[in-house]
Structures are given as structure tokens and as C-alpha cells.
Amino acid sequence: MPRSARKVTQPAAPAGALLRPVGRLSDGTAVSVADRVAEAMRLGGTLHDGAVRAGVSPQRLAAWVRSGNRIAAALDAGSLLHSDLDAQARAEVALAQTVEASATEGKLLLLGLLERLSRGTEVRTVTVRLDASGREVDRYERTEQHAPDAATIRWRLERRWPDEWAPKGRLEVTGPDGGPLSVDLASRAAELAEALRATPPPPVAATNGAAGNGHSEAPTP
Q1: Which of 11, 20, 21, 217 could form a disulfide with 209 if both were Cys (CB 3.0 to 4.6 A apart)?
Q2: Is residue 86 within 8 Å of 40, Cβ to Cβ?
Q3: Which residues have CB under 8 Å from 81's CB, separation 6+?
Q4: Which of 2-6, 82-86, 153-157 shows the highest mean pLDDT?
Q5: 53: how many CB neighbours lie within 10 A of its CB?
Q6: Where are any strands of DSSP class E within the chain?
Q7: Domain map of the chain by residue range?
Q8: pTM of the model
Q9: Long-range contacts for 82-89 (Cβ within 8 Å, ≥24 apart)?
Q10: Opening angle at CA 94, ends 88 and 97, nearest 5
Q11: Crossing angle of helices 58-77 and 33-42, rounded to 10°
Q12: Going by C-beta distance under 8 Å and a sequence separation of 6 or more, which residues neighbour residue 139?
């Protein structure tokens, strides 16, 4: 008999993993989980992407961030003092703040690029010609102006001020006094069934055979 397959679940990283370096830069500087998560989210990645980048379980990373947000809220409310936090709690608070800040930085970067497109851009190209010895013998510079992107401007207006700029071709169906529309399916089904019973069936035309006896005869092959 074939052996039954077993689901293998990778254990989540322990809480202390947040405090250990997950890499080092070329100059030897230690890189933390928060650093790796920040890298991913500044580029528009998700929290899951940050966990993969840092080499930790996505579930564990999400738990760290939730715990950090709870602790930060308690600190803001005054129900907890910063001096009461251990190293793990302080790291969780810093991680939660890093996640929020990095996600905002990534969003602002995209908004900046969108702003440049909507306002138009200037592209400057420099072409340099060198001789056989590598000395510059000629230089040509060209500047091109790209007009503002009308579609991008309209897109930003629709999402920034939807009440004024969003398309108005939306249809809303509501019930009495603007409330939700209520449909009694059981009553409607009963009405349809009663209408079907009251409708007479269509007449069936009789087919006379060749002998005129009211019976059809199969054609002779």
C-alpha cells in the first residue's frame, strides 16, 4: 500500500530571531530583519515580500508587527513606559514603525514619479565621441521636452477628488427612503408559479396519416 503523504510545515522563526542579524553589508555592517523588510517595502513590496527577503516566516513577521503596534499604542496611551520594555519589545516597536515608514516612502516615490509624468519631463542626452587614444573629440547635447500626460492628469483628478472628477455614469438602486432594496424571493417565486398554472398549455395539432385515420405513419424507406 502507498504510504500516506504527510504535510511538512516549516516552523516559524523564534521570537529571538528578530534581534539577530540576517546579513552584513560589504563593509561588515550588520543587517537586521527590519532593514531587509524596509528594502522590500520601499520598492513597493508587501509584508510577505519583506519576510521572504529577511528569511523569516511571514506569519512570524506579521505577529511581530502586530505586537509592535499594540505596544506602541500602549506607550502613546501612557499605560506602558518605555523603560518597562525588554529588548524584544523595543525591537518589535521599531519594526512596526519601520514597516509603516517604508511603505509610506514607497508610496511617495510612486507619487513623485506620477507627478513628473503629469507635469511633463525634460530628457537631456549627451553624446561623446572619442578618438583612438580615448580623448574626447566631439560632444553633442540634446534636450527633449515631453508634454504633460493628459491621461495621467485625469487619473489623478478622479482619485484625488472623486466627487468632482470621477465618471458619473454609476447607477444605484435603493429601496424606500433610500434604504436597501429588499426582495422577498419566496413571495416572488409563488407569484411566478401561480402565473404558470393560470397559463393554458398551447394546442397540439393532430397529424393525419395517408389513410386519414388520425394516426401518423412512418415513411416507407
Answers
A1: 217
A2: no
A3: 75
A4: 82-86
A5: 20
A6: 23-24, 30-31, 121-130, 136-146
A7: 15-110, 123-165
A8: 0.56
A9: 87/19, 88/15, 88/16, 88/18, 88/19
A10: 145
A11: 100
A12: 126, 127, 128, 129
For residue 49, give the C-alpha cell.
515580500
* Residue 173 CB partners (closer than 8 Å, separation 6+): 181
47 vs 155 pLDDT, higher one: 47
The burial class, CB within 10 Å (0-12 / 13-18 / 19+), for 56 is buried
Give backbone dihedrals phi and psi of 124, rounded to 5 degrees, phi first.
-110, 125
List, for residues 43-64, the tens digit of each pLDDT value.
989 999 999 999 999 999 999 9
The answer for residues whose C-beta is within 8 angstroms of residue 147's C-beta and 6 or more apart is 120
Q: Mean pLDDT across the stretch 76-101?
A: 93
Cα separation of 14 and 56, whole Å? 9
Rounded distance, CA 116 to CA 110, Å? 10
Q: HSE-up of 82 (CA within 13 Å, CB side)?
A: 6
Q: Could you give the CA distance from residue 164 to residue 156 in angstroms, rounded to a whole number?
A: 12
Residue 114 exposed, middle or buried by CB count within 10 Å (0-12, 13-18, 19+)? middle
Q: Supply the pLDDT for residue 6.
A: 44
